[in-house]
């Protein structure tokens, strides 16, 4: 068959030339076992990347200018993330888990004031006055101020004097309380 003149090549020809390439890519991805669609929504699923919370918080304890506390990972929870960030010149140590209920729970520790931590946890372009406190809760022998954004993100903050601790989730309050109570009972890590 003679090649088509360039002027007669259209989108349909391009589509049919890409089909074998896409089929080959899909075959390689499936054969390698490196793709999943995550349909079972189980936080213990091995497809969820693991994160070493112990090492991350130990490193933050050595680098941050404030004390860091490390709660033990609750049974059935999977640590999955961590980061170090800054709020207007103040450092923030953050780690996260997928709880047994399947919700993401985040623990942030910082030497920033509560009025800087609230918009940081609220996300987006929120300001301190945009998110009002919804009350207080007791967990781990400490008083926590509770907040909730219009998008349903809930977080609790407590003040240890030289460090503020925030626990955030969109899941049930029981998940927040689990980490809040646990971190409140921990002594700071050795720097």
UniProtKB/TrEMBL annotation:
Residues 65-85 are annotated as: Disordered. It comes from the Bacteria. It holds the Pfam family DUF4245. This is DUF4245 domain-containing protein. It comes from Gordonia namibiensis NBRC 108229. The lineage of its organism: Bacteria, Bacillati, Actinomycetota, Actinomycetes, Mycobacteriales.
């Amino acid at each position: 068959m003679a090649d088509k003149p360039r002027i007669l090549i259209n989108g349909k020809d391009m589509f049919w030339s890409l089909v074998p390439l896409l089929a080959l890519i899909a075959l390689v991805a499936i054969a390698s076992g490196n793709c999943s669609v995550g349909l079972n929504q189980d936080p213990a699923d091995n497809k969820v990347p693991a994160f070493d919370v112990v090492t991350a918080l130990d490193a933050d304890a050595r680098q941050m200018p404030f004390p860091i506390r490390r709660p033990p990972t609750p049974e059935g929870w999977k640590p999955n993330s961590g980061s170090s960030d800054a709020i207007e010149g103040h450092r923030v140590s953050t780690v996260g888990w997928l709880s047994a209920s399947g919700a993401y729970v985040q623990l942030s520790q910082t030497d920033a004031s509560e009025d800087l931590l609230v918009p940081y946890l609220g996300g987006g372009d929120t300001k301190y006055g945009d998110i009002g406190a919804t009350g207080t809760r007791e967990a781990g022998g400490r008083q926590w101020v509770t907040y909730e954004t219009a998008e349903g993100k809930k977080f609790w903050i407590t003040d240890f004097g030289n460090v503020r601790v925030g626990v955030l989730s969109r899941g049930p309050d029981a998940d927040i309380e689990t980490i809040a109570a646990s971190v409140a009972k921990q002594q700071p890590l050795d720097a």
